[in-house]
């Protein structure tokens, strides 16, 4: 039976890694349908040539057609990330478009490898932890970041670095690394709410510094008028389609963009009020868990969230596995299974991943709530508790022996 279990685990791990590599190959094969070429590379090339109209869809499409000498791609041309993202990609525009995409995807794979290396103490504990890490970082939805040439591999590395920094009590550094996720603000927009209510001011300081870097760099790259234009012209259409967050589920019932955004705001208020009411409990949690809660709440309430964004939860799942292997592995498998179910559903009703994300968040919160009892299942904590009891017993014995 144990041999069959190991064979099943190996098969699962190979399937996940193989699928990720296959999605990377698909991205290269359909290069002109990737977000990297239709948005990131094109915007970077425009900036390199002094054209700041990167938030004009028609301008972006015209530039892409000049670059690629091809018809319109399947996806609409829209660059929505901060200007710094496109500015950093300018060196890749000296390469051919497909070569640049290959380099970007390779760098994304290296970023995931670096994230795994940062968590090596968690991953190499047991073979089960290795499986959890593979299934989390190479889950079926996470692999879509390679199919579309998205940023999320690098953002997963930043999130992993933030966890490791918090573990070593480098809170300002952790805040700076969390602020990297402002490249896609919807992935971390409720983290500051959790941090403020928990009173983690050094983490907040790092996030503020990171936010200033994003803001000042936007003005430096585009100038103030074009920066304001970016804030006004980001397309609202990105929220009026199916996705993984709770507001996205409303789209299946005919919700408009304004209703989706309103639902996100309502969830923000409800979350803030609930966290404030439970602030004493919140302040008793480890900083790693605070970050995990912030990321989960951000994704659940986000006005825009797609499958590849779930790779940001990979370090959360790996660290979760230290306390509850079964729940962590189950969470990673459920997210992949929900992705496969959504593939066969009509696009307007592909909401199973959103429900799966809600289930994962509920299970994680349940584990945190019962943490005082379950933490003693960790060998290190159990040993510490035993030594503490022995020490207390010894102190009582010595005290009773005094005249």
Describe the structure.
The chain is mainly α. Helix content is 70%, strand content 0%. The protein has 22 helices and no strands. α2 crosses α3, α17 packs antiparallel against α20 and α18 runs antiparallel to α19. The radius of gyration is 23 Å and the shape is globular. The C terminus is likely disordered.
Q: Which features would summarize this protein structure in a list?
A:
403 residues; mainly alpha; globular
In short:
About 70% of the residues lie in helices and about 0% in strands. The protein has about 400 residues and is mainly α.
List the helices and strands and how they pair.
Blueprint: H1 2-29, H2 35-48, H3 57-68, H4 83-88, H5 97-118, H6 120-123, H7 127-137, H8 144-147, H9 152-167, H10 171-179, H11 191-198, H12 201-222, H13 224-233, H14 246-249, H15 257-277, H16 279-283, H17 287-301, H18 314-320, H19 325-344, H20 352-369, H21 371-374, H22 379-401
| Estimated helix fraction | over 70%
- Specify the biggest β-sheet: none
**Separate helix tally:** 22
Identify low-pLDDT runs.
373-403
Round the mean pLDDT to the nearest integer and report it: 85
Shape: globular
Our Rg estimate from Cα atoms comes to: 23 Å
Number of strands: 0
How far do the termini sit from each other? 62 Å
**Which class do the helix and strand fractions yield?**
mainly alpha
Strand content: under 5%
Helix-strand topology string: HHHHHHHHHHHHHHHHHHHHHH
